[in-house]
Amino acid sequence: MFYPRLQINTPLNQNRHQEDFYSFATLSLNPEELRLSTKKFYGVDWDPSILDPVLARQAVFVGIYDGYASDILLHFLMVDFNSHGGSAVSQYLRQELHGIFESVNKTQIPELFAWIQEIGGYFKRFRGGALTPWIHGTEGTPELDLEARATLAFFEVRI
After folding, report:
1. Which sign does the torsion angle of CA 77, 121, 83, 86 carry?
2. Would residue 97 be called left, alpha or beta, if left means φ above 0 and alpha means ψ between -120 and 50 degrees?
3. Contact 65, 113 (CB under 8 A)
4. What is the pLDDT of residues 76-134, one digit of tens each?
5. Highest mean pLDDT range out of 10-19, 50-59, 65-74, 114-123?
6. Residue 77 near residue 61, CB atoms below 8 Å
7. Using CA atoms in the order 40, 60, 73, 118, what is the torsion angle rounded to 10 degrees?
8. Phi, psi angles (nearest 5°) of residue 19
9. CA geometry: angle at 65 spanning 64 and 70, to 5°?
10. CA separation for the pair 115, 156 (Å, rounded)
11. Which residues are CB-contacts of 132 (< 8 A; sequence separation ≥ 6)?
12. Backbone angles phi, psi at 79, to 5 degrees
């Protein structure tokens, strides 16, 4: 049986008032993406066809939004999104990130990558990372895995 790895961190910031929020959501994702991800990250070649098609698409999204740091961490389907935006950004992410994560599509990647390269700045060093298989087009490419989906959602939130 597959058990996702969960990680618990203790914040270094000991302020009495934290601008943290959390959310839980159920998502409907392509079972092939889930299969690719379990194989890539855990070496488990899960067969979604053994489940009811509706059940095979289900995943739980757990979001923890911290108003102080500056990264996205993905622990399989547990997302920790930290931003310098404080309470307003944390609340926005609590309400919207799971929907963005669920709705991104690999067909968005070529245009997004071209735009990232055009603006430069912070993104100047980005060469595709987890999105590399799709930056020049999506025809005949594999499905997204969860790392690529999280990277795409990160850029969708940032821009």
Report:
1. negative
2. alpha
3. no
4. 444 445 555 567 777 777 788 889 999 999 999 999 999 888 887 667 788 899 999 99
5. 50-59
6. yes
7. 80
8. -100, 50
9. 120
10. 12
11. none
12. -110, 135
pTM of the predicted structure, to 2 decimals: 0.75
Q: How does 138-154 read in b/e, with b if 16+ C-beta sit within 10 Å?
A: beeeebbbbbbbbbbbb
Place of tokens 């895995």: 145
User: Which of 29-33, 79-83, 96-100, 143-147 has the least mean pLDDT?
Assistant: 79-83
Contacting residues for 84 by C-beta, under 8 A, at least 6 apart: 67, 68, 69, 70
In angstroms, the CA 36 to CA 31 distance is: 9
d(CA 37, CA 40) in angstroms, rounded, equals 5
**Which of 87, 53, 51 minimizes the C-alpha distance to 67?**
87
**Four-CA torsion 23, 29, 31, 34, nearest 10 degrees:** -50
Judge whether 60 and 76 are in contact, CB under 8 Å.
no
Q: In whole angstroms, how large is the CA radius of gyration of the chain?
A: 16
Q: Which two tokens stand for residue 158?
A: 């940032």
Q: Where are the beta strands (DSSP E) in 4-153?
A: 21-28, 58-66, 72-75, 78-82
